[in-house]
Design a protein that fits this description.
By secondary structure, the protein is an alpha/beta fold. The protein has one domain. Helix content is 24%, strand content 32%. Strands 1, 2, 3, 4, 5, 6, 7, 8, 9 and 10 form a 10-stranded mixed beta sheet that branches. It is globular, with a radius of gyration of 17 Å. The relative contact order is 0.23.
């Protein structure tokens, strides 16, 4: 099953410190994983990277969240107004809160954000009402195992096999697009351990902007 990432309003926990409580109400990226390997590495440093990808079906955005050998990719639609609210906040504040849901537990990270001006040109996608090209592009990326092959290309020989998972940014506009298409019925599994027998192809960082 393709899990849905969410854009939520940050609600500090009772035990959070003063600084985190001051961030109450800001937009937050919440991602989901069912991999137990994440529990073993959540105390390691995290990184957040944005990648802009041009495809024959139109552009799409990937938000790549990584801890150690665990990678999670969020596919997002540039034509989604809720996505731009999140990106605009990241660009202005230069920080991002990411909540990782592992089972019943929530892990929070506050990460620095770099310059996002390179993505501004994609805002014109908001003026294109038909978003079916985005969903088709996501299906093709997954069908070609593009995230796994990209991660494998970044994994040094002798390192543990990476864990790769995928979320779809499940905002109201994207859910509506999914509801109106049956494309996701063809999506393969989204949690895997790629091996050195796989060959890297089809996934490029494009205008990726490192956020950490």
């Amino acid at each position: 099953m393709l899990r849905g990432a969410e854009i939520r309003t940050f609600a500090p926990a009772e035990q959070d410190g003063t600084f985190m409580k001051r961030l109450a109400g800001i937009p937050t990226l919440r991602i989901h994983t069912d991999s137990q390997e994440w529990r073993q590495c959540l105390n390691e440093p995290a990184s957040l990277t944005l990648g802009g990808h041009q495809t024959p079906l139109g552009p799409l955005l990937t938000i790549q969240y990584r801890i150690a050998n665990c990678w999670l990719f969020v596919f997002a639609d540039y034509g989604d107004p809720d996505l731009w609210k999140l990106l605009d906040f990241w660009a202005e504040s230069r920080c991002a809160i990411v909540e990782v849901i592992v089972g019943l537990n929530i892990y929070r990270e506050l990460l620095p954000v770099g310059d996002l001006t390179g993505f501004a040109g994609y805002r014109s996608e908001l003026d294109i009402p038909d978003r079916s090209g985005f969903m088709e592009a996501v299906v093709r990326f997954l069908d070609n195992r593009a995230p796994e092959l990209y991660v494998l290309s970044k994994t040094e020989t002798g390192m543990p096999h990476p864990v790769v998972e995928v979320n779809l940014m499940a905002t109201p506009s994207v859910i509506d697009s999914v509801t109106r298409t049956s494309l996701l019925s063809t999506v393969p599994k989204t949690h895997s351990h790629p091996t050195s027998q796989d060959h890297c192809s089809g996934f490029h960082a494009g205008d990726a902007t490192s956020l950490h």
